[in-house]
């Protein structure tokens, strides 16, 4: 009798899908899919088989608890519980964080890249930039490989990831001014376009990255590489003469 009741419910769901749209799509477990087919016969229904693994929110990564802690500290990515156990809410928050910072795949797994980025963002102390009390200041934290924008001494654009000069091409620390801006600059030495270019010293400046920013072995030739969305935002804020402050030193350079 129990099996008949389950089949009846499945049949009702299938019929509702068919009536509602002509061709229904119903998510079922393997066993339930078979029961539904037997119950409704040749009804024009697509049964999507969902295994238990696929139904789970997402896997628990090696750095689950650490990432939960950093996300709670950073804020803005949803509710997380710092217990080292993956939940639907944790998964959603981690995916949102990964999507924001261009981490691929954005599948909610707290792996080494997600851990490293979260740690860098959480470790960034915006007060260290010593931004101007009036106007905009673009800040670059070489030590944590992050960047942010201050306005009138307060955070205007929150810390995000960057990639600065590698060994032999170190991005210099200091206070500079934006002195050239073009939406698309051609680099003669490296034969590549640099989108949303904002130069602040020599041949160095902000621009959209042309490669995956989270490849740890990579480095720039002195420029401040940005994710596409950040490069576009920085360009919309920037103007000739605005201050750029570069602090710290990239590890290994």
TrEMBL record:
InterPro entries for the chain: LD-transpeptidase, LD_TPept_cat_dom, PGBD-like_sf, PGBDSf, Transpep_catalytic_dom
Pathway(s) it belongs to: Cell wall biogenesis; peptidoglycan biosynthesis
Active site feature: 214 (proton donor/acceptor), 223 (nucleophile)
Cross-referenced Pfam families: YkuD
Gene Ontology MF terms in the entry: peptidoglycan L,D-transpeptidase activity; transferase activity
Keywords associated with the record: Cell shape, Cell wall biogenesis/degradation, Lipoprotein, Peptidoglycan synthesis, Transferase
Gene Ontology CC terms: extracellular region
Biological process, per Gene Ontology: cell wall organization; peptidoglycan-protein cross-linking; regulation of cell shape
Domain L,D-TPase catalytic, residue spans: 136-247
PANTHER family: L,D-TRANSPEPTIDASE, L,D-TRANSPEPTIDASE YCIB-RELATED
Protein name per Swiss-Prot or TrEMBL: Lipoprotein-anchoring transpeptidase ErfK/SrfK
Organism: Actinoplanes digitatis
């Amino acid at each position: 009798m129990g099996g008949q009741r389950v089949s009846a419910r499945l049949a009702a769901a299938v019929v509702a899908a068919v009536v509602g749209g002509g061709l229904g799509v119903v998510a079922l477990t393997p066993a339930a899919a078979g029961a539904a087919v037997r119950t409704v016969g040749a009804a024009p229904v697509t049964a999507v088989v969902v295994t238990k693994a696929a139904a789970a929110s997402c896997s628990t990564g090696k750095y689950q608890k650490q990432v939960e802690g950093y996300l709670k500290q950073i804020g803005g990515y949803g509710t997380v519980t710092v217990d080292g156990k993956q939940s639907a809410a944790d998964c959603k928050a981690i995916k949102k964080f990964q999507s924001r910072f261009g981490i691929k795949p954005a599948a909610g797994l707290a792996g080494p890249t997600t851990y490293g980025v979260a740690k860098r963002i959480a470790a960034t102390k915006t007060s260290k930039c010593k931004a101007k009390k009036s106007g905009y200041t673009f800040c670059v934290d070489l030590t944590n490989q992050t960047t942010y924008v201050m306005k009138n001494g307060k955070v205007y654009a929150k810390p995000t990831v960057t990639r600065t000069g590698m060994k032999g091409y170190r991005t210099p620390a200091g206070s500079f001014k934006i002195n050239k801006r073009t939406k698309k600059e051609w680099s003669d030495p490296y034969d590549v376009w640099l989108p949303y270019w904002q130069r602040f010293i020599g041949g160095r400046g902000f621009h959209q990255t042309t490669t995956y920013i989270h490849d740890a072995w990579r480095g720039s030739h002195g420029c401040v590489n940005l994710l596409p969305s950040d490069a576009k935002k920085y360009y919309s804020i920037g103007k000739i003469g605005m201050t750029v402050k570069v602090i710290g030193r990239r590890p290994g350079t």
